[in-house]
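Quick illustration, no need to memorize.
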Amino acid sequence: MKHYSRGELLSASVSQLNTISTEIRREILVTVAQRGGHLSSNLGAVELTVALHRVFEFPKDKLIFDVGHQCYTHKLLSDRTDRFSTLRCEGGISGFPKREESEYDAYDTGHAGTAVSAALGFAKARDLTGGDYEVIALVGDGSFNNGLIYEALNSLHILNTRILIVLNDNGMSISPTVGGVHEELEGLKAGIGDAALFSRFGLEYIGVCNGNDFEELLPALERAKAALKSQCVLLHVVTRKGQGFSFSENAPLETHGYRAAAPRVCAYGEALGEELKELAERDRRIVAVTAAMADNLGLRGFFERFPDRAFDVGICEEHACVLAASLAAAGMKPYYAIYSTFLQRAFDEIVHDICGQDLPVTFCIDHAGVTGEDGETHQGIFDLSYLSLIPNLTIAVPRNIAEFRAMIRMSATYPKPLAIRYPACGSEGECGDVTVGTFEVLARGKAPFAVLAAGERCVTLGERLLARTKAEGRSFTLISARYIKPLDTACLMGLKEQTLVTLEDNVLIGGLGDAVARSVHGKEVRSFGYRDAFIPHGKADALAAEYGLDEDAIFSALGELYARG
């Protein structure tokens, strides 16, 4: 695809802008088909982004995306057209806005709710330094469920500055948008509501206009730009997720995230949904809580079977945590399902509301470990560290789906806070007893060291290392460290091996290796996990190897331990 300058956009007729939009859509579809990525959200935002690039002068003006999974058109219209084919590849361009990638990306994003706060910061910096630029926050309606948005809006009068908020309303986050704000927006679109929600914050409300129609969109943006000279403005546009391709328009949820290669057959989320439904049939106390991701986490069947006991609170991770805590305090048995990277947003509530009260909430932490192409904001590599320091919390790391199922069944009667962390996909496998605080010895061997592996990626790595070792006529003891807290200290101290080698799909600081080193005396601990860095986008297994779980490097280290005796 050719690069279109702002001058070309300014001189283009509406018909020509439509042609450009069609070309952009095709480029996005072809690239996502090859590289994977966010499809329906980007298809829906093409005209809106083209219009923004025509009306405003980027990068002089600042465009700040909320989340950013609709930024592909922005990348194609900035300085990355010739690199767009490298989308989400290691060393290529990111699927989210990245400051280090281009001056057109004013602010890194990837989680919801941050854009208005960030826009206010840019605007105040402009005011204080005498700058001459506009600041635009492009926010989806799903993000308007997030509390951080309202903390920012509450500051509008205090900060006394000017920003434009473009509300891209497609009725979706990943799942369909829910809640009171969604109902207010639906009323505005139907012509039966008013904009008091926004005007009370001091915003001039302009809307509703069709964000996929240049005839409506361009005049609305020009009006918003003019109003922005004297006050903060909210422009409410309606777009269709998946616009331009019927297969995506008709299945916006299924085409929100597209994988270039089909995932492995077995999914932990499916197992979670099946086990919770079965448990809930027998126990009316069991409820499920999620933050706008019921389908991705395998809970759609539970939501359909038990609608009165299933709560999707939208993109409100902190609220979901407190809701789960209070449900437990009132005698229910809540399961809070969430991606690892999003759970960290609710850290304070985990500490004080759940663990501080020692409430029996079970965290089902999906997409743990290195996840791949979505990059830094979506790698689930910190949860073992930030959870391990919290009193009262038990942390389980199953080595396969069968063990995960057993842990879910165990959790139904477990009386304390419990976190079970697992990758998106894995093998079904088999398991035995999953008594809390016990490790499982998978193989006994003769070596001066034992290998402790936490979770499926690391157990599988340990098994490959053991196979290579056996091929050389040697062996070692391999242990599944399936509980990070409490550790099986009896097992650790009972080992004759004087060196313990730990493998974890987590950063090294504060993870399994640190916990083992603090718990054993008189033994050497050698730890392998991720170094102190944010891990960028790329293929998950390649990234895991590059950042600390390289099989050849670990095998070489084991050889040195053998040689040392």
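Residues 279 and 412 are 7 Å apart (CA to CA).
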